[in-house]
Automatic annotation (TrEMBL), chains A, B:
Highest taxon above the source species: Bacteria
Biased composition (Polar residues): 7-16
InterPro entries to which the protein is assigned, alphabetical: 6-hairpin_glycosidase_sf (IPR008928), Beta-AFase-like (IPR049174), Beta-AFase-like_GH127_C (IPR049049), Beta-AFase-like_GH127_cat (IPR012878), Beta-AFase-like_GH127_middle (IPR049046)
Signal peptide extent: none
Domain Non-reducing end beta-L-arabinofuranosidase-like GH127 catalytic: 31-419
Listed transmembrane segments: none
Organism: Kribbella amoyensis
GO biological process: carbohydrate metabolic process
Full protein name: Glycoside hydrolase family 127 protein
Domain Non-reducing end beta-L-arabinofuranosidase-like GH127 middle, chain residue ranges per copy: 430-519
Length: 636, 636
């Protein structure tokens, strides 16, 4: 029997830049060990990742790669981006290995890596669907739709995760060969290269990450070229509307996000990587403005991104319908990735707050409590009478897989690498961004520091940090105080919300710091320009946005009202939905319904009998039945 | 020089059934001669129809038919349903000829009819795109998407219009040959036929109309078969979601409208035709319920149908977002066609009211004042910051044509045949449904009656009916009193709204009846379940829904509020927008804007300074500039 497999002791995480204000803790440094997230990560490793491989097999994604590798005969199956789902799954396997090394994961990874390597063409090109359907002649003929760079990007990200977390260099060899091929192929026409961009960004982030891993500057240069090439008419020259593809304006001239939401935030995250590594402050400033505009005018209260089904796109300013929210799970993931890069670059707690909101709500709602059923679309309202209209319809409930299966493996890689978003450090500071039961280590200038974090967050507001190991030099513990946490205290002293509380001292092992975040339920309204939720309120507690589901309420949720001024009580229910804090509020049943034509002479809204309103965390909806659900309730 | 061309003296109109409660006035019997509609019809004839032929030429639709006819060589261009736009245009030419006979129209019609006839295959099959792209082997291989029956349906409708209005039988010969081919090809498998339905209905209406014209019962039987075949799994067997195609439930079991809105209302209109001709009261009752449910839960205040861009579809109950309203112009036209058939079958004024609302608002907004620029999508709100995202985006303004050009020729045929919706008759009654300056004649059991209608409706509420010719027997004049017209009078006597006022007497030539409809501006609110317009109001006057446009207002329209209790004044402005009555109300500018994250602790909406609000008829928006527009304003 062989020795138990081990992850390398230096498992660097994603976006691990040495040039930001802060450097993220590696996956062997920050470790979630219990509390809210650990069982979710465990289900991801035990249920989602193995079932994901089965789904990739039955959907044909793996078969495509085998065919391209010359194993068997047949035609490519599924969408042009089929390879990317395999690579995201491989990335998840790598991060999961850092979290929980196992022979099984290594075996799965190595078998599949061998197939991918065999599928690669001699000159480095790799895209199984294009190879099978169009041959060498078909390369880069329709980059606006073909996702060839998109697939390459996900391959590169998986390869970097693999070498960082398992030490295996198999996929990295494929990735560098592919990246070298891209470097040789794309650029300015006068250099004899193809001047084109993929309709779906991700290659930008990936090439920067490969540069970080290998030090090869050509990868960074090409990433920068792809970022700068956007907004100069390339997509339009191909006869397509540029806005959908984030190609209407150059990235550094853009002031908002528009078009396909996943594409937009992936591009922005890649641009942030480029800005970070090249020290391009103008580009970084443009990205700050874009993020701020997105956050103030195009983001759901859940952190969900993308208001439109048509084009899976961002809407106009303040266009945020709760019922037809698209809020694709992948967009929340891309939003987290973008915010993470902005946080490392700027040290602004705003971005860590944004990550928290997206993580606990817009992202987490995308997966079932059981761990392997998913929402592609994350509505903030479902009417009781809703009819499913297609496979992505929330009215169908969460599903095991999708025809366009981008979200499930994206969720898997996010859960598996979640520890990497907890903490970062600089020369004499450690930052805790997200609060989870676990351990954090950092190499400060004067030596190694190790912390232990005990918390039942988000159910309880207490976070205790215990110093496990320290140097004898002073250093600073920085604790994020969320913007919603007015009244937070550190060791009993009020601290300001919306920034990091700094505790600088010479520490001794065994020292503790007690952070207390106030978790009183909060009733929030919307800027009046958010027309779709006029005169309505939502309820939050800590980082969680709440929702009312029909199964918990007697009155019809479709037109339940909430009395905003009434007391809201919180009760933790360990038995319910894997343990949630339930909120109970006072409300009123709907009234003033009109028979027939619904637009009658104006009268102010009537409300009906007083009722109790029960709300659960939004992320937990649709785990018992699929029925009426609302995040926003009219004022009652 | 030849004699001036003349329309046949018996130009029957569309849906001319002898089995309904009422029979529609023919196009030679009901004639709009002035007022609101006449100049619009004139622009349709003089600008839209000729430019439509140019557009069909440059888009390739006409070339496809020439190629199929063996004239020249090349490949089919454009969408699979390209032929249908040609047929709708030919139908418009035919109705227009009845309105205003001309050699030019005859020449255009005959030339094109000859091409269509030459394109038809010997066995009667006809679809130029399928013939060119897939050959005889490709027929009916993908009926769910191929629109072969859809094109056939529009051909048949054009042929019936042609023979009724010009006497030419050229297109009718093609149509009957094609219909005979369909009768021979489609039906039950045990009869050796193809059991399939077109993904896009219209063939049902068309075959019934052809039956009415020719008396051939096989056409009615096949129409009934197509109606009854729906909802029995055919679409699902082809691997598609049935709801989009109105195929989730049998028509007679359906209780609402769902899926693609144009498909849904075309099918319903065809089913109404079948119910009417076969005396199927169960089917008619099902259609009554469906219409009532659509009208009370899935119709915009403008009569617009279809809430969703995704799938161009009806949304769930009460899902009626004003900003992302799809409200396709074709859906309003289909809604009018369905309502017209229901009106003739039932004699219920409810349907004539519905026609009025769709006609003056949801339909009319689809065309510019100049007559040849169109909206495909009819939003009820456009924000000032809106970015166009594709060719159908209202933010682009009205356009001369579309890649999917269903709406423009549909508008043309509707304008040209509008006279046919004015009036109907039974043995001893004449009904006036829509009020327009014009003449109406009817053959009652005891002879011919002729009326003259004088009105400046919808600007003025007075309608004077003068008897021009009458029999010496008593008969009844029935005048629709719209449901909104509380306080209407006939010759000074109050009459009840929402039904027909009946004036029965023995008439003499020169007798007059004075109808007075009250045109005080009305402030309307929505059923509280219409979440998207909570706490908002719209303004109507007569049949017109109003909108505020930025160009008429100093405060930002994006968050302008209206004070519902304040007086609204009406001023007719002959100089503005071809003459409109403008409404002026009291409002408040927006306030309470939030910087940054827009979801902050709840507070009731603040409002800003008092401002004057100017509103114009919704149909007239986007004729001066494209800017912010709203039908619904928050209560101020």
């Amino acid at each position: 029997m062989s020795a138990a497999p081990q992850a390398p002791t230096t498992s660097r995480t994603a976006a691990d830049s040495t040039r930001g204000r802060w450097r993220p803790a590696g996956l062997n440094q920050a470790r979630i060990t219990g509390g809210f997230w650990a069982p979710r990560q465990q289900r991801n490793g035990e249920r989602a990742i193995p079932s994901g491989q089965d789904q990739l097999e039955s959907a044909g994604n793996l078969q495509n790669l085998r065919l391209a590798a010359g194993i068997g005969e047949g035609e490519a199956i599924g969408p042009v981006f089929a390879d990317s789902d395999v690579y995201k799954w491989l990335e998840a396997v790598a991060w999961e290995y850092a979290r929980h090394p196992s022979d099984d994961l290594l075996k799965r990874q190595r078998e599949l890596t061998a197939v991918v390597a065999a599928a690669q063409r001699d000159d480095g090109y790799l895209d199984s669907v294009v190879q099978l359907r169009y041959g060498d002649e078909g390369r880069y003929q329709q980059l606006v739709w073909s996702h060839e760079h998109y697939c390459a990007g996900h391959l590169i990200q998986a390869a970097v995760a693999q070498v960082r977390c398992t030490g295996d260099r198999g996929l990295l060899d494929v990735a560098t060969k592919l990246a070298d091929h891209l470097v040789a192929s794309f650029g300015e026409v006068e250099d004899g290269k193809i001047r084109d961009v993929d309709g779906h960004p991700v290659i930008e982030m990936a090439l920067v990450e490969l540069y970080r891993e290998t030090g090869t500057e050509a990868y960074l240069d090409l990433a920068r070229w792809f970022v700068e090439a956007r907004g100069h008419g390339i997509i339009k020259e191909h006869g397509h509307e540029p806005a959908y593809f984030s190609d209407r304006l150059p990235v550094r001239e853009q002031t908002t996000v528009e078009g396909h939401s996943v594409r937009a935030v992936y591009l922005a995250a890649g641009a942030a990587d480029v800005a970070l590594e090249t020290g391009d402050t103008d580009l970084l400033d443009a990205l700050k403005n874009q993020f701020a505009h997105m956050w103030s005018t195009k983001t759901y209260v859940t952190g969900g991104l993308g208001a439109r089904w048509e084009g899976e796109a961002f809407g106009d300013e303040y266009e945020l319908p709760p019922d037809r929210a698209y809020a694709e799970t992948c967009a929340a993931i891309g939003g987290i990735q973008w915010a993470w890069r902005m946080l490392l670059a700027t040290g602004d707690a705003f971005y860590a707050d944004a990550i928290e909101r997206m993580l606990y709500n817009g992202f987490l709602a995308g997966v079932s409590l059981s761990g392997a059923e998913y929402f592609y679309v994350n509505a903030l309202q479902l009417r009781g009478s809703a009819q499913p209209d297609n496979g992505r319809s929330p009215a169908r409930g969460r599903r095991g897989w999708f025809e366009c299966a981008c979200c499930p493996p994206n969720i898997m890689r996010t859960f598996a690498s979640l520890d990497g978003y907890l903490a970062s450090s600089s020369a004499t500071e450690i930052q805790l961004h997200q609060y989870a039961e676990g351990e954090v280590a950092a190499e400060l200038d004067n030596g190694t520091v190790e912390l232990k974090v005990d918390t039942e967050y988000p159910w309880q507001g207490a976070v205790r940090v215990t110093i496990q190991q320290t140097t004898d030099q002073p250093w600073t513990l920085e604790l994020r105080i969320p913007a919603w946490a007015e009244g937070a205290t550190v060791d009993g002293e009020r601290v300001k919300e919306g920034e990091y509380a700094r505790i600088e001292r010479t520490w001794s092992a065994g020292d503790t710091v007690e952070l207390q975040l106030p978790l009183d339920p909060r009733v929030v309204g919307a800027d009046p320009r958010v027309d779709a939720v006029r005169d309505s309120v939502a309820v939050e507690r800590g980082p969680l946005v709440y929702a009312v589901e029909q199964i918990d309420n007697t009155a019809s949720v479709d037109d339940l009202h909430l009395v905003p001024s009434a007391t809201i009580s919180a009760t933790h229910r360990p038995d319910l939905l894997d343990g949630v804090t339930v909120l109970t509020a006072r409300g009123r049943a709907g009234a003033g319904h009109r028979d027939g034509w619904p637009f009658a002479p104006d009268s102010t809204d009537a409300t009906g009998d007083e009722v109790e309103v029960t709300a659960i965390p939004y992320y937990a909806w649709a785990n018992r039945e699929i029925g009426a659900m609302r995040v926003w309730l009219p004022r009652g």
